[in-house]
Amino acid sequence: FSITAVTGVLFSRDFDTAYYTEELLPQFAAQVSSVVNTVATTTNVVTGDISSVPTAIENASATWADATATTLMSDVTFIKDMEGGRWIIDELGNQMIFYGADNVTEITRFDLKDKDGNANHLNVFERVRV
User: Fold this and answer.
1) Residue 98 neighbours by CB distance under 10 Å
2) Could you point out which of 37, 42, 102, 119 has its C-alpha 20 to 30 Å from the C-alpha of 70?
3) Contact 85, 107 (CB under 8 A)
4) Residue 45: partners with Cβ closer than 8 Å, 6 or more residues away
5) What is the pTM of this model?
6) pLDDT tens, 10-60?
7) In the chain, how many H helices and how many E strands?
8) pLDDT tens, position by position, 63-73
């Protein structure tokens, strides 16, 4: 314990220290400011009119109605559709088409290009969302 310094309150059952060697010899690496061996609990009681406090359902509805939550849900739906739906490479249009989880609803398209930036569906180097 030559490089360890512990200060503060020691939560104990009246032990002199929290540190002992393997031979159960006490080590006094800590500078204990006080020993706590009992805990008192309290219960807060709300008094007065709480009729204006929103319910859990009202809080949840307000949270999901928030623009950030709506955007988040939209993004998650988009990702699920992109990963869970059908993908098709359109050879004539040099595009990759993504469908929703129903495999019918088109979600988005990407132009497919080779390393020189030319439209290509065989040697795809880049995709650009249309």
Assistant:
1) 19
2) 102
3) yes
4) none
5) 0.49
6) 555 666 676 777 787 877 665 656 666 677 788 878 778 888 888 888 888
7) 2, 8
8) 878 778 778 88
Query: Which position has the token pair 């869970």?
Result: 84
Q: State yes or no: pLDDT of 1 exceeds 50.
A: no
- Can you tell me whether residue 33 is helix, strand or coil? strand
Q: Are 12 and 20 in contact (CB under 8 A)?
A: no
